[in-house]
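Problem: given the chain below (695 residues), write out its structure.
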Amino acid sequence: MAAPKTTEGVLGTAAPRREGRAKVTGTARYAAEHTPPACAYAWPVAASVARGRVSAVDDSAALALPGALAVLTHENAPRLGEPEDATLHLLQSPRVPHRGWYVALAVAETLETAREMARTVRVTYDEEPHDVVLEPGHPRLYHPEWANGGNPGDRETGDFDRAWDAAPHRIDVTYTLSPLHNHPMEPHSATAVWEGGHLTAYDSSQGATPVAELLAHMYGLDQRQVTVVAEHVGGGFGSKGTPRAPVVLASMAARHTGRPVKVALPRRHLPFVVGHRAPTIQRMRLGARDDGTLTALHHDVVTHTSTVTEFVEQAAVPSRVMYGAEGLRTGHRVAALDVPSPSWMRAPGEAPGMYALECAMDELACTLEVDPVELRLRNIPDREPDSGKPFSSHGLAACLREGARRFGWERRDPRPATRREGDLLLGTGMASATYPVLVAPSTASAQAQGDGTYHVRINATDIGTGARTVLAQVAADALGVGLDAVRIDVGSSDLPHAPLAGGSSGTASWGWAVHKACRELRESGGTVVTVDTTPDVEAQQEYARHAFGAVFVEVGVDVVTGEVRVRRMLGVYATGRILNARTARSQFVGGMTMGLGMALTEHSSMDAALGGFVEKDLAGYHVPANLDVPDIDVHWIEEHDPHLNPVGGKGIGEIGIVGTPAAIANAVHHATGRRLRELPLTPDRVGQDLAAAAG
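Solution.
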């Protein structure tokens, strides 16, 4: 084996994406672009009622079409083992739990024929009354034992009631968010092939291993009989973090027909079958002393789940982390409605929860006439308020001060509605951000090729974040070689096991395993090393590990149209060691852009009569376009945290979204003097409020 070269500065540099050329030249293969010989196509049939049972299916016209292969229903589809996630127990019973639930699957020689077949299938229902509207006093609200992420549904430390009653200054306000939807550029899709009892699935997924485990369970197979490939994924934002309908439908159709089958969901189906951010009604109560230090904090969240599976958006959890108070009460109440099942959407819990908390902090700052940055600095706790654990590191104060300096916050006139340019009212606002540091055990292998190059294998998933590139940098750094000397394979369940790309935990988890394998290979002088970080992760000391940030925004609000435009936006973050400056900046900017959409454009509404979401595509569900996004400025604090992992990173995919909606909402208040507590701040909503204030 050739001796490795010593290379300085591989980790942390702005190395370009390894897959960049393949993506721009079209050679990168996504799930729907794998077309095996004799591949058939399938198109799902969605229920047109909000609740009931399928009483009859007439597929005669569909099967009469040239090229028709099959129509699968609950009467003839392959029987599947019951999964933990009941949203995947498809075509197994006549029950219809919500509008858009799949009740049939048309399979044909061509995509066009499959789509026409699905259109001609006639489904008859025994319809039942439905309930899809979330209200703060809904009679079926209950306190869940757990919220998403294994967080307790309710928590209390200290005596909130006593602290609240004694507080000289109090804020009691409610913030409302509508449902939000993941709309990745690549729709959810899968291609399935059965060969000799082995199932291969090309899936648009944030984690191939969980999909392989699911399919093995549902078909009663040994996991070695299943291979799931997710080599390139065109975004997911959480909606591809768990197995989804396409891979189940494609594998069922392939088994039934004996042919490879491809399923690519139309975008108009996505709001109903791949999860959404549940609506939240959040009551915030803050009690404070004269100097603004908090004595009482109560965060009450009302949200919905489905009747299929329980998912509780953990929006109250960030209030257990951010600021200390003598009495701290946080909790969730949820109603199981006849709606599609909510699920992960980028920064679940933190994104909506921090919107409410940081807007309430801004209201408190205005009431006390204390600078919003200073108010937050005064309330940074020494230990995590809920658990009492020491922080592994805490960079919020540094982010606040550096952000204020770069933004020119000291020039801000704190009085609302004092700056004007023609029809524009101008204002500035800010908010803090936080996201937990999550790490899961991983395995990886590193092999010396004998010619000075190395081959690293790990079932990581690159969902557009640059994971291939960053992991190659980690490997090169540990081996002491140049980046070109490392080849890395990711995105297949046949590779060494690794967790999914979710919770901003991917790089920290995978990087630990890659670093360990490469370091052991270098030190041993052998040819191949395979490692498992389970004992390392389990041996971590008890620290509260969090990333922090601060977002500063300037907006212009048109008094004629009510339109809000972000003029400039700055984010400063403390996320441990930055492993690749180029991909890190991209992730921060992407998160902040998504936060801008949450604040100003993204919104979904429920049709109470029909029981379905109204906004079903990108014509109705408005994500930010180029002209909506200013020149976003991003910086980070150099932060060394010895209690994380060998590579020192905290994860950056989601913290960018967390503080942005509140910063924008606070800036709108500063511009107009009007406090709107419901997102998004669309022109009609803002314009009506300004008109009402003027009239």
